[in-house]
Design goal:
Blueprint (H helix, E strand, L loop, with lengths): L6 H24 L6 H7 L14 H21 L7 H18 L1 H9 L1 H8 L6 H6 L2 H15 L11 H20 L9 H12 L6
Helix pairs in contact: 1-2, 1-3, 3-4, 3-5, 3-6, 3-8, 4-5, 4-8, 4-9, 4-10, 8-9, 9-10
């Protein structure tokens, strides 16, 4: 059973969460370029110097915001109905990924375009990309969905294109659609119904026979 936090520890935790929430609000409303220790402090009626008791730098706060973003993304992916047939489950998970990106646009862009800010803490530079992906709960959700398709005989592995390779390809597809929706096609994003057709069509390339 986890040890109960002391009142001081609970206050510390609440203040940390308030700082992260203030940072998220600034990013959502004004963009990441407007994020500063002073701006965060103003939001929560705190002194800029006092923030360093909770986070060592603005970059550490950005890392915390990104970590929270990946946690929320994982939760969204894992909310996909597990009773769906394997291919439908994977398609719906992909649509959930795109939907998350669209409803958390600034948050999502920060998570992926500011990777160098959080890389030292969360992504050891001497590890292979495949190892890093296996550590990601969000990617693991996608990996398991692809494994279901392989186990059910819906997808077929090849010596040069295994479950990991298929999962990475699926991620590239949904992430590409998401980024197009948020950038080049921001004024008129791809229609959700067309997104479903697009995913099914592209995923059909992994289907046996």
């Amino acid at each position: 059973m986890p040890e109960e936090l002391s009142p001081r520890e609970r206050r510390h935790q609440r203040t940390q969460q308030a700082i992260l929430e203030a940072a998220r609000q600034i990013i959502r409303e004004e963009g990441v370029d407007s994020l500063s220790m002073r701006a965060i402090a103003d939001r929560i009626d705190y002194s800029p110097a006092g923030l360093y008791e909770y986070f060592g730098s603005k970059e550490e706060i950005v890392g915390g915001v990104c970590s929270e973003g990946f946690l929320r993304l994982t939760q969204r992916l894992q909310s996909t109905d597990p009773s769906l047939p394997p291919l439908d489950y994977l398609v719906e998970m992909g649509l959930s990924y795109i939907s998350f990106a669209m409803s958390n646009s600034d948050f999502f862009m920060l998570m992926f375009t500011n990777a160098p800010l959080v890389a030292p803490a969360n992504f050891p530079q001497d590890e292979a990309p495949e190892t890093l992906l296996r550590r990601s709960p969000a990617f693991q959700s996608l990996y398991r969905a692809v494994q279901r398709c392989v186990d059910a005989g819906v997808f077929i592995e090849r010596p040069d294109f295994d479950v990991l390779g298929i999962a990475i390809a699926c991620w590239q597809i949904v992430h590409g659609i998401s980024m197009l929706n948020l950038t080049t096609m921001r004024i008129k994003p791809i229609d959700p119904a067309r997104q479903r057709v697009t995913l099914r069509t592209l995923l059909s390339g992994f289907i046996q026979g």
